[in-house]
Amino acid sequence: MAINKHNSKVNRGFTIIETLVAVAILMISIAGPLAVANKSLTAALYAKDQSTASFLAQEGIEMIRNYKDNYVVKNVGNSSSGSALSDWVSSSDLSGCRQNTGACGIWYTDGSIVNPIVSPCINANGCVLYQQDTVSGYFGYVNDGTMTPPPNATIFTRSFYLNPVQGGTNEVQAVVTVTWKEGNVPNNMTLISMMTSKII
After folding, report:
1. Which of 58-67, 79-88, 89-98 shows the lowest mean pLDDT across its residues?
2. Bridge partners of 174?
3. In-domain check, residue 126
4. How many CA atoms lie within 13 A of 170 on its CB side?
5. Neighbours of 8 (CB within 10 A)
6. Contact, 98 vs 159, CB < 8 A?
7. How many other C-beta atoms can be found within 10 angstroms of the C-beta atom of residue 52?
8. C-alpha 173: how far from its chain's center?
C-alpha cells in the first residue's frame, strides 16, 4: 500500500506578510515615476505660462511704442513745448499712467493695430486680460468699474506706467508688468524700454 506524503513547504502558498511586502514594492515602483511625471507636467505648464507672459509684456511695449510713434507723426511740428516726446507723454490718455499715480492698460479693440486704446486700471480686476477675439487671438480689458472679471478672463493681468527720465533728456522709461498665479503662487514679469521722440 502506497502512502502519499505531501511536502508542506512546497504547497503552503503565500502568507499575508509576503503579499503585503509584494504590494508595497509594487506601489513604490509605480509611485516614483508618477511623481516625476507630475513634476514634469507642472514644470511644462509653468514654462507655458511664463512664455505667454513674456509675449504679452513684449506686446505691451510694442503697443506703447506704436502709440508714441502715431502721436509723434500726427503732431510733428505742432508741439507747444518744442518736444513731441513731452507732448505724447503728457497727452490726456497717458496723464494718469505714471509710477506715482497709477498703472494703465493698453490694447486694440477691433483687431486693428492703428489706434491702441489706453485706460487706467481702475480696480483689482481692471487690468485682467480676457480673450476678446478667439479668431484673431487679441486680448483686451474690461474697465466697467465692477470687481467681476469677464467670463473669458485669462489668468494674466498686464499694466504699464511711464517714468520720465530726469535731467532734461528727451527720454521716458516705459515699464510693462504682467502678473499671473500658479495655484496660490504669484508670478510676474516686467519689461522696461527706454523711448524717445525719435521714430524707431
Report:
1. 79-88
2. 162, 193
3. yes
4. 13
5. 7
6. no
7. 17
8. 21
Determine, yes or no, domain membership for 96: yes
Bridge-based pairing of strands 117-120 and 128-131 is: unpaired
Question: What phi and psi values does residue 42 have, to the nearest 5 degrees?
Answer: -60, -45
- DSSP string of 153-200, one letter each residue: EEEEEEEEEEEEPSSS-S-EEEEEEEEEEETTEEEEEEEEEEE-SS--
Are 187 and 56 within 8 A, CB to CB? no
Q: What is the DSSP string of 55-107?
A: HHHHHHHHHHHHHHHHHHHHHTT--TTS-HHHHHHTSTTTTT-BTTTB-EEEE
- C-alpha span between 64 and 59 (Å, rounded): 9
Return the DSSP state at 96: T
Q: Inform me whether the pLDDT recorded for 25 exceeds 80.
A: yes
Query: What are the cell numbers at 119?
Result: 485706460
Q: What is the domain extent for residue 85?
A: 35-195
Identity of residue 111: G
The residue written with cell numbers 507732448 in the block is: 87
Domain membership flag for residue 14: no
Report the amino acid identity of residue 107. W
pLDDT digits (tens, 9 = 90+) for 113-151: 666 778 787 665 557 787 666 666 667 776 554 545 566
